Amino acid sequence: MKIFAWYRLAACMMLLLLIIVLPVDGVGVVSVSATTPVSTAVSQKAVVTANASAATITIGDPVTIGGSVTGSTVNEDVQIWVFAGNYVNVSTVPIKSDGTYSRTYSTAGFPPALYYVFVQAPGNDGTFDLDLAQSGVYSGQVVTAETGALLLNFTGTGSVQDAAASSALANALNEGGMDDVYTKTTFRLAELPTNAVTTGVPAATSLPLPAPTTRSPLTPLTILLSVGIGGLAYCISPRR
To answer: What integer best gives the mean pLDDT of the chain?
Structure first.
């Protein structure tokens, strides 16, 4: 009897262990998805597009930078950065009701170069994280809007320009804590070619020369016919 009691006790313990460890009809299993639902709502940043009116602009002709801003956090303005060499211009441009923006720039007096363009839109906080230093629009110092810390400089000692400046500005906008979104493009300013036709007079064209004529060589048959005709004429001609 005692042996049977021990077997029955051992069987009950094994059954209890199986109920706790193994998922039998949901018993002993904690379902995270059922008891603690996880929110899937994610704040979507704005999406910015940008393009220049042409890939190459003749100096003196205007260039227009335009695009669109879409998303759940669209603000009122974008910042357009245009820079080449030690020149940099940052302007605030309003976003229209249809989500588009544009600004036209004069290129008169600008040097020929490849110009880099960044279009920056604020994140969820509604403010631009990067800006030029308040000491002047053309100071060339890029600082954080919150602390004023210098991030890069377009002019002076330790400055970066052109492709290096483009990479440095992108790296600054990609830093942790920056929630601004941006896109970039380029356009080239070129001088008018010196050999360009500036009048309405068409260029003179030369007529094709006539092809030279060639004489066919005399063949033996041609010679015999000529001799025969000449002899016949001699025979029938009146004799004196």
So the answer is: 74
